[in-house]
Amino acid sequence: MFTIALVPLVGYLAPLGFAPLLALCGLLATPGLARSRPASPPAMALFVLVVWALISLAWSPGAPNLVDLKDSDDMGSFTGLKLLFQLALYGSAIAALRGLSDRSARRAACVLAISVLALALLVALDGVSGAAFYQWLRAVTNDPIRPDLAVVKVSIATYALALLFWPTARIMSGRGWSPAAFVLLGAVIVGAVALSADASWAALAFGFMAFGAVRLFGKVAARVLVALVAAPFVLGPVMLLWGVHSGLVAWLHQHVPRSWDARLDIWAFTADHVQAHAIRGWGLDASRMFGPAIPLHTHNAAMQLWLELGAVGAALGGIFFSWVAYRIVSLTGESQEDGAIAAGALVTYLTIGGLSFGVWQEWWLALGALTVIACDISRKD
Questions:
Q1: What is the pLDDT of residues 110-124, one digit of tens each?
Q2: pTM for this model (two decimals)
């Protein structure tokens, strides 16, 4: 309840705060894991991925100097260590909270629906006003912000809304609150468009395609989804290099906005450099070492895994997401609606991850964990 009730506050004022929020949730939920549980295949894939990432520090140009890790700020820049804690704490939150009783889940579902709708309405109104309310809040707290930066800050909330829309809409429709679900959808779209959060509305659009396909065609569509999810992790660099050599990327350069044009350059550069260390990769955090060619990360999860952890890391990442997609096949057999909701959420997460953020960003990983929890809660409502 504590975690879900804070979604509007954290989502609007400090989206990066989803990382400590989920970590605290996992820490508090740890005592509930005293009972032994069978090993989870996706959790094992992630554990091996983290171990491989730590091993890759042996050859990574982005590896931190252990001698320089003296205080909390230094430790906060150690990606490998953060990944270990995140896997443990976010995993704890998912494992424990998925075991909620039906009664507790129904109460949590109600809070989730109200929280996400409140956040969506606030973001939509602020988006239409050019983030006027956010600027006012910063001014009253003696921390003024430029209007353009305020818009960017508020737009980050649209990523959480795009993900949490799916379980929230499921809860609303199950409770007979269908009008509220349409209001929620409208608010999320208005906020994303007004704040120029292209990846959010694009991800929502692809999510609806997946949702509709599974809702209409059931397990057949869910099985196709498994292959589509695996494809970028298997063929990512090959597809990009083909696009470069065939002239498709050059054609796209002439027809896409500037931000997308920059992404094409980053992806082409990444695909080219994957070839140098195709199996082992350049090492964890190596993306940061390529200067202006790759600003911080590749803006694509699969390509970042290929670049930093090679075919080994990409395969492990592909195994994890393919297993999630495969689980949707069996879920669809139990309930076509639940399977469609899960498909929409998964495709939304992968689309945003394929366009915007670094694969290791802790707040983004925390949002993924929160979405898993929210989807499970919505099924029990």
A1: 999 999 999 999 999
A2: 0.93
